[in-house]
Design goal:
The protein is an all-alpha fold. The chain contains eleven helices and no strands.
């Protein structure tokens, strides 16, 4: 099957991808505050818990160590959050919300569809590389079969607007003749996230197999370009309607 060339050349996407790269390298979300006197006790506790949980997991992290790292009284942790498991859930919600805040700031609705998609792909790869704690926490929660996230009353509300926005970008792309019809926004988003998350989460084993160059900036830039090419190539409209194999 031949596909029509509906997407612009890669060079025209450099601007949006560079913007996504800068945002991912320089997180601005208040959900992951820097240490300092301006941080509230709650923020210090969450920041310390995020780091402890990322390093040691839910089972390995101790409330005493979180309190020491936050320079806070341990009793305040129980007063604010009740127990370690509730603190774990709050940390998970916080890191998911931080990523969504930056994703929302990409403002893909204001971009031509191919550029919007390229920016979203580049951002997801760069964000996961810049936030190893996010990757560690998500991987840990998957070990727990998402038993804590399932209790969240907040999480799904974060992603409904994202899927609506992605659906809008797809519809605009179809209308402009640069995207094919029938793409499921949910499946596409899972693919976009997976293209970046797998690479980052497994970069050490990949480097052990294929060489240490898997971790440098040149390798990351090559991966970014490949991910964008994969997604935009998939979205290109068919020159002829696809036929189902029998």
């Amino acid at each position: 099957m031949n596909r029509s060339s509906g997407s612009p050349p890669m060079g025209s996407l450099a601007g949006p991808c560079q913007d996504a790269r800068s945002m991912a390298k320089n997180p601005t979300s208040p959900a992951l505050p820097r240490r300092g006197r301006s941080m509230t006790i709650r923020e210090r506790i969450l920041d310390a818990a995020r780091l402890e949980f990322a390093e040691k997991g839910l089972a390995g992290a101790r409330v005493d160590d979180i309190a020491a790292r936050a320079e806070a009284n341990k009793r305040l942790i129980y007063a604010y959050y009740g127990n370690k498991e509730a603190l774990w859930l709050t940390v998970l919600e916080t890191v998911y919300a931080a990523k969504r805040d930056e994703e929302r700031a990409l403002n893909v609705d204001a971009l031509p569809p191919p550029e919007a998609m390229a920016r979203l792909v580049a951002f997801n790869l760069r964000y996961t590389m810049a936030h190893p704690d996010y990757v560690a926490l998500v991987n840990q929660e998957n070990i727990h079969r998402a038993s804590y996230l399932q209790r969240s009353e907040r999480l799904r509300g974060l992603y409904t607007p994202l899927l609506d926005s992605l659906r809008s970008v797809l519809e605009r792309g179809v209308a402009a003749g640069v995207f094919r019809q029938g793409v499921d926004p949910l499946q596409l988003y899972v693919t976009i996230v997976g293209l970046g998350h797998y690479y980052v989460a497994n970069r050490h084993t990949l480097a052990a197999i294929f060489g240490p160059g898997m971790n440098d900036e040149a390798a990351l830039a090559a991966r970014e370009k490949h991910c964008i090419d994969v997604v935009l190539g998939y979205l290109q409209p068919f020159a002829d309607p696809p036929r189902t194999a029998i």
